[in-house]
Write a structure and sequence with these properties.
With 723 residues, the chain is α+β, with helices and mostly antiparallel strands. It has three domains: 340 residues, Alkaline Phosphatase, subunit A, CATH 3.40.720.10; 177 residues, Galactose-binding domain-like (Jelly Rolls), CATH 2.60.120.260; 58 residues, Immunoglobulin-like, CATH 2.60.40. The strands form nine sheets. Strands 5-4-7-1-9-11-2-12 form an eight-stranded mixed β-sheet, sandwiched between helices. Strands 19, 20, 23, 24, 27, 30 and 32 form a seven-stranded antiparallel β-sheet that branches. A hairpin with a 2-residue loop joins strand 15 and strand 16. The structure holds calcium ion (CA) (2 copies).
Length: 723
């Protein structure tokens, strides 16, 4: 008996010792993570049920072994701020990263935090980036510290195509699409996913965090032809929604979030363009799904199958015509609902697969991975929730809101089965997604739901940063020949030397920001001072040379991007010279609007005069007259153009008080007033041209010629364009 006891004790001791050893081993052998991000992937996947026409067999199979967060939301319905949020674990209303032009490196709260891949690296992981992980990036130093291998980061949305499937106005809005027949390696998604597959074949001495960012299904909706062929155009169904869906939403939402309505209407009314676009998007989903299948297959057949977690997400949702909108950037579910799978390693018995319907956020990924991978904790940074309790019990009570934000002060609270939208002006929408997944009936208008609005409103953020801390200016005056520019170029590139006359310095590209405010792609060129100065007011350069920014003559890639101008823009004045002595040229003025650059005017540049055959220096003033915060760039054309000097004045500059109140509007030559008021119009020399009490909307008298004037009224003073 004694013997037996001793043996048992010894057995227990041995078991304990081996358990401790296992735990120690597990600590040393942290699990790997394969993090897959899809771009603009909404809930149109077979397993999520957003569209039953979609072909996504690989994701559907993956979902069966996953904890499927079927009610997950992005923090922001747009690439850059969404990625910023889940890679930092910080809400956009704290970092100020709200849109795609809020570059991470210029947002200290984001740039100075511990990014998710960095934290894995700090915990002994090998980190690999392939494809689109960030949209704008943190600074170069932060990036290089974060990744062991980023040779395959990015890769581009291409191949770009320029066909005539869509008419010009639609293709400029959404880009064209094509069933490609060329080599599949033309696609960054193919090259990048191969990088991940190759990485999984290697022997790794440390645990890894491998991130793969797909460009698809983001546009251009271009994919290998075989994926288009899987969908019959005649059978493509449009999404269902009531024709009067917009009747019960606030005017604020209509005016601020649905800027593509006219195009969307045109798309839906023109032939079968709508169906073609839907098919192209679906082909891109299936293309990405196929490549994901190859990665998963490689993982399953690798040495890492039993010790690798997979996290798969879409960065934002997408409207395909619902709410008369074809893009993301709204507070509705279409734009914010995303796929989100957490897949335990094969053979893991701690977690069971299944659907979890609790509303969760992509910013929950970071704290969750810290827990399941056993990483060190991070103090005072992460704002998401650790989802482990839901992974262990998918129906556990979860009284936590998931918040989506789009632009300052606009939020959706996702709480249980409710979505409460609150716009910056205080307007609400309320939807019960158990009964109304498409968010068609706005319950906030009904008195009996007032209690629900009030009760959900407690989860709204009470404080938020209103704008980016990035450089924002009211007016600009830059002479490229100034010493300040020479010093700036030297700061960016210590090897910069002022080019010899007639020579160019071309080490300029779009990753460099000058004076922390301009982005440029082109070159710097030197000319003999004040060349061919036919116009007396041209004074750029000094006596020996004039330095210019040079728009290149190839690829339409050159630009000079101005920082966000808070007070709008009145006039832009360019000192330019056509680099081509015989042919006319042009520049275009483009405006950044949500996600893309749109041309707002074309600036013709003269050829040489016939007599001397020497290029002419010109001073060109372009009236812009945008009376709101705006970001502009000058874009090059097909010939060299030298830009010696640029001046951009704020709207209503020259000491005139700006007033962005919408109280008084002008439409061509008509003053639109909401109520009777006293109005005076002055010309730019300050001479009064009109002064009158007006009862209602009034035509400006013919005695006032077209042009720029200053108008004073009880709400303030502003500059107006009469035309
Ligand atoms: Ca996106
Ligand atoms: Ca509605």
């Amino acid at each position: 008996m004694n013997k037996q006891v001793i043996l048992c004790s010894l057995g227990t001791c041995l078991t304990l010792a081996s358990t401790q050893a296992n735990e120690l081993k597990q600590q040393e052998e942290k699990p790997n993570v394969l993090f897959i991000i899809m771009d603009d992937m909404c809930d149109w996947l077979g397993y999520l049920g957003g569209n039953n026409q979609i072909i996504s067999p690989n994701l559907d199979t993956l979902a069966q072994r996953a904890i499927n967060f079927s009610n997950a939301y992005t923090a922001v319905p747009l690439s850059n701020p969404s990625r910023s949020a889940f890679l930092t674990g910080i809400q956009p209303f704290v970092t100020g990263v709200y849109t795609n032009n809020h570059a991470l490196e210029h947002h200290p709260v984001a740039n100075n935090c511990i990014f998710m891949p960095q934290h894995f690296k700090n915990n002994g992981y090998t980190t690999l980036a392939a494809g689109k992980i960030f949209h704008t990036k943190p600074s170069a130093t932060v990036m290089s510290n974060m990744w062991d291998d980023m040779t395959f980061i990015d890769g581009g949305y291409g191949p770009w195509i320029d066909n005539n499937v869509l008419p010009d106005n639609l293709k400029h809005q959404w880009r064209n699409f094509e069933a490609k027949t060329g080599p599949e390696t033309d696609f960054a998604d193919v090259r990048n996913s191969q990088k991940i597959i190759d990485f999984l074949q290697l022997q790794h001495s440390k645990p890894f965090f491998a991130a793969m960012g797909f460009y698809r299904p983001h546009n251009p909706y271009t994919a290998p032809k075989k994926y288009f062929d899987m969908y019959n155009l005649e059978e493509i169904q449009r999404p269902n929604f009531p024709v009067d869906d917009l009747d019960d939403i606030p005017a604020y939402a209509l005016n601020n979030f649905l800027n593509l309505r006219d195009y969307t209407k045109l798309l839906s009314e023109s032939g079968n363009y709508y169906e073609q676009m839907l098919r192209a998007y679906m082909a891109c989903v299936t293309f990405a799904d196929d490549r994901i299948g190859m990665i998963l297959n490689a993982l399953d057949n690798s040495a890492y199958a039993n010790n690798t977690w997979i996290v798969l997400i879409g960065d934002n949702g997408f409207h395909h015509g619902e709410k008369e909108h074809w893009t993301k950037t709204t507070l509705w579910r279409e734009a914010n609902h995303v796929p989100f799978l957490i897949v335990p390693p094969k053979g893991n018995t701690t977690y069971t697969a299944g659907e979890c319907k609790a509303p969760v956020s992509l910013i929950d990924i970071y704290p969750t991975l810290i827990d399941i991978c056993g990483l060190t904790s991070i103090e005072n940074q992460l704002q998401g929730n650790n989802l482990k309790p839901l992974m262990e019990n998918k129906t556990a009570e979860w009284n936590k809101p998931s918040i989506s934000t789009f632009l300052p002060g606009n939020f959706t609270v996702h709480y249980n089965n409710w979505n409460l939208l609150r716009y910056a002006n205080g307007d609400y929408e309320l939807y019960n997604i158990n009964e109304d997944e498409g968010e068609h009936t706005n319950l906030a208008l009904l008195p009996e739901y007032r209690y629900m609005v009030d009760s959900l409103a407690q989860y709204l953020p009470t404080d938020w940063v209103t704008g980016p801390p990035e450089v924002s200016v009211t007016s600009i005056s830059e002479d490229f020949s100034s010493e300040a520019w020479a010093a700036e170029l030297k700061r960016i590139d210590p090897n910069y030397v002022e080019p010899a006359i007639g020579k160019a310095y071309t080490n300029i590209n779009n990753t460099i920001r000058y004076f922390d405010k301009y982005l440029m792609n082109g070159g710097i060129v030197a000319r003999a001072g004040t060349p061919n100065c036919a116009i007396p007011e041209i004074t750029h350069g000094n006596e020996t040379r004039a330095i210019a920014f040079r728009f290149a003559n190839t690829g339409n890639k050159s630009y000079f991007e101005l920082p966000t101008m808070e007070n709008g823009v009145g006039n832009i004045t360019l000192h330019v010279r056509n680099g081509n002595a015989t042919l006319a040229s042009s520049l275009t003025l483009q405006r950044y609007d949500l996600e893309d650059w749109t041309t707002i005017s074309t600036i013709p540049i003269q050829p040489a005069d016939n007599f001397s055959a020497v290029s002419i220096d010109e001073v060109i003033t372009c009236p812009v007259n945008i009376n709101e915060t705006v970001k502009l760039r000058i874009h090059g054309g097909e010939r060299f153009v030298q830009l010696y000097r640029i001046d951009a004045e704020a709207f209503g500059a020259s000491g005139i008080k700006n007033n962005n109140a919408s109280v008084l509007q002008i439409n061509n030559r008509k003053l639109i007033v909401p109520e009777p008021m006293y109005v005076s119009i002055y010309n730019t020399l300050g001479m009064m041209a009109f002064s009158r009490f007006i009862e209602k909307d009034t035509e400006i008298p013919a005695s006032i010629e077209d042009g720029i004037y200053v108008i004073k009224f009880p709400g303030g003073t502003k500059k107006i364009l009469v035309n």
